[in-house]
Amino acid sequence: MKNEGIEGTERFLSPDKGRGLRALRDFAVGELVFACPAYSYVLTVNERGAHCEHCFTRREDLFKCGKCKQAYYCNVDCQRGDWPMHKLECVAMCTHGENWCPSETVRLVSRIIMKQRVTTERTPSERLLLLKEFESHLDKMDSEKDEMNQADIAALHYFYSKHISDLPDDQELTELFAQVNCNGFTIEDEELSHLGSAVFPDVALMNHSCSPNVIVTYKGTVAEVRAVQEINPGEEIFNSYIDLLYPTEDRKERLLDSYFFGCQCTECTTKSKDKAKMEIRKLSSPPEPEEIKSMVHYAKNVIEEFRKAKHYKTPSELLEMCELSLEKMGAIFADTNVYMLHMMYQAMGVCLYMQDWDGAMSYGEKIVYPYSVHYPPYSLNVASMYLKLGRLYLGLEKKTQGVKALKKALAIMEIAHGKDHHYVAEVKREIEEQK
Prior knowledge:
alpha+beta; Beta-clip-like; Serine Threonine Protein Phosphatase 5, Tetratricopeptide repeat; 3-stranded antiparallel sheet; 15 helices; globular
């Protein structure tokens, strides 16, 4: 395949940012800028049996691979389509049995190696950027990231060396893992549940902004990039690499840690939303700056503790952890403060897992409006929250509230996902069923 480019856009050298993507024509809000099939992808283990391994379709009547009995498919065509990638994993899973447990990144990298061996020409995923052009930032990695890289390389050798002849040497693997970690994407469903990991080279070409003018959504294993602001000819096309809920300092820390650059976008220089995001409770005696600083430190620590605790605490213990942290932070922070919202969101997730629908609804109601203030317009985070809340309301026979919430989700999804997306059709059907 020749370098045919992407109609209406061009690769260019962006001042202070390196290569980037810019518009050659007008794009209206909701318009598809471009679509990019995954160069390589992998379904997360937790979704096996619920989604097709090849096309990521969600359905109940999937059938499993007769050899490994782990991968599920829509039909014979999907199974055949996936076989060039699955055969490697199929043999490895049969060999290791219950001990087969490589990380998702290791699984993805093994597939990239296989793809590179059979692909000599530019692929439809690389119209503007080749995978081998990905930045690795190896020179900026700290010892912790380097150790994680080496652990992944060791796991790749352990699980796949018998099945992939002549693996690349460790130096090449170190670079490839670093490239995937910096440029990989998480494929998510309409409620932002994790479905898998993938690389989309052309999507990775876009630079970051905390006030992005496009949004990336997924139709199966294809990434779709749509305008969420009007884009004029000559303007750079910006995606967001991170969750935009948090204040400027937090976003900058995350971008520097994960992507090795300091953001200078308008939102980061003006900090226009920081005051609302860090709202302090109205008290007769306002807290001192040191008290606020101390509470922010506590909040960041408890967020990290909760992330680790998910792996070993019971749901009831996790919920108690959320409630205690909310009680402590609530002495200073308003309910609309993003650190409060973070822990409410975690609590809502635990309630959903425990099938405590009323508890989940209670947290969702506190979250949804502040989300719509803190996030940019047409945010998937806001849409997914209205969607979860709407489905909860309907499940609890609160029909009017349910339909209202689903309609708010739909208004965002029609822009972010496009009016012809199957997720949009599903939500429309849910609304119609209530009439």
